[in-house]
Specification:
This protein is mainly α. The chain has twelve helices and no strands.
């Protein structure tokens, strides 16, 4: 490999200078999954939702590029250590609702579904949750960045902990609000779910801030898959 080729690879997204390789890979996988669902479900609600999530994934990945390209931890190994914190929202949801892996078992119990079809269904479920996780984590990263821009720099630098708490609260609240934008909202009915969303949002935000965007997305995917 010549010097010019090495320089090009180092400057590419997957080159040596790209520190959050997991995050970048998941963004690309989300784009592929979004395109797949959008094309295969044209005219159906899934297709419209996938298109929305696909666009959101691309836009918010760009908006939160600072988090994506400059993670707190310099190595992939250090970043992935934070993924284990996904056990906290998983345990909380299990206590509240019970049941694991229902997203897989709901349709796989039918005798009409062959082994090959089950594999295809599994790939679709994973692809959909990657798309959801990338768009949602990118959305919170972007809101966090926008709030940081709005805050006076001097105040933010002098009050790092309150500023971080404020940015986290606003970004998580916006994220929770979007969960009910396409569905009916009943505070009494949805209160346990809202509280769980805040808990999960705090964990995901912490993973992103202390680890990387990719670690937060991977934790989000694991939480969704085990639902």
């Amino acid at each position: 490999m010549n010097a010019a080729q090495e320089k090009r690879e180092d400057q590419s997204l997957f080159g040596a200078s790209a520190r959050d390789k997991v995050g970048i890979a998941l963004v690309f996988l989300a784009c592929i999954a979004g395109m797949m669902f959008a094309l295969s479900s044209v005219g159906y609600l899934l297709g419209f939702n996938a298109t929305t999530l696909w666009i959101a994934s691309m836009c918010f990945s760009v908006g939160g590029a600072g988090t994506l390209l400059y993670p707190e931890q310099p190595t992939t190994e250090a970043q992935l250590k934070y993924v284990s914190l996904a056990l906290i929202p998983i345990a909380a949801r299990t206590i509240l609702n019970g049941g694991l892996f229902t997203s897989f078992t709901a349709d796989l119990q039918s005798a009409d579904i062959t082994g090959l079809a089950q594999i295809g269904y599994l790939v679709e479920v994973i692809g959909l949750w990657i798309l959801v996780a990338v768009s949602e984590e990118g959305f919170r990263a972007t809101v966090n960045m926008l709030v940081s821009i709005a805050l006076p720099d001097q105040w933010e630098y002098q009050h790092l902990a309150p500023a971080a708490a404020l940015k986290g609260f606003i970004s998580i609240t916006a994220w929770v609000w979007f969960h009910f934008y396409q569905r009916g909202f009943n505070l009494e009915l949805h209160l346990p779910y809202i509280l769980w969303l805040y808990l999960a949002g705090i964990i995901f935000t912490y993973i992103m801030e202390e680890g990387s965007f990719g670690a937060a997305v991977l934790a989000h995917i694991i939480v969704n898959l085990i639902a």
